[in-house]
Amino acid sequence: MENNKFNRKRVLLTIILLISATIINAQISKIELRATGLTCSMCSNAIFKQLESISDVDSVATDLNTNTFIVFLKKDNKLNPKTFKDKVEKAGFFIGVFIVTATPEILDQNIYILVDSKLEKQTEINFQVLDKGYVTEKEFKKLSKTYKDVATYSTNNENDFHIKILNQ
Q1: CA 90, 91, 96, 100 torsion: positive or negative?
Q2: d(CA 18, CA 95)
Q3: E-assigned strands of the chain?
Q4: pLDDT at 107 (0 to 100)
């Protein structure tokens, strides 16, 4: 009886360790976002400063011609797309395109809902967030029609991220 109890504890500990290892490895390494509403370099600078203020950001690169910001993140960060959306909006602007580079294990977190792709075995994935606030208003209206059968898409829950894998 005592040996059976020991085995249960051992199995439970192994499961906990495996889940912890997956969560630790599940992380975003890079964000590429295109902002909308920018009219000058001061606008770009406001977004740059907001993104740079995130503690897990390693560096930010800017392309003023396309209003694109590439954000490189520190290892072992626990960030999600909402953090970046909030910062861009705090600067007074909006996101038109939001692309994430991450380990595939990030999809084990139930905040990510795969709507338009199948995941293939890869060491790194690129995906686009398709929710309101991560695409232009015009694109969101179009996507709402496309994903009308995805019950969670129309609810606009800010803690759910509907994604499409880009590197197939």
Answers
A1: negative
A2: 36
A3: 28-36, 57-63, 68-73, 94-102, 112-114, 125-129, 161-165
A4: 85
Residue 85, amino acid = K
106 phi and psi angles, rounded to 5 deg: -60, -25
Rounded Cα gap, residues 131 and 80, in angstroms: 13
Counts of helices then strands in the chain (DSSP H, E): 4, 7
List the 94-102 sheet strands across, edge first: 57-63, 68-73, 28-36, 94-102, 125-129, 161-165, 112-114
Residue 67, Ramachandran bin (φ over 0: left; ψ between -120 and 50: alpha; else beta): left
pLDDT, one tens digit per residue, over 62-83 is 998 899 999 999 998 989 999 9
pLDDT digits (tens, 9 = 90+) for 89-115: 999 999 999 999 998 888 888 899 988
DSSP 29: E
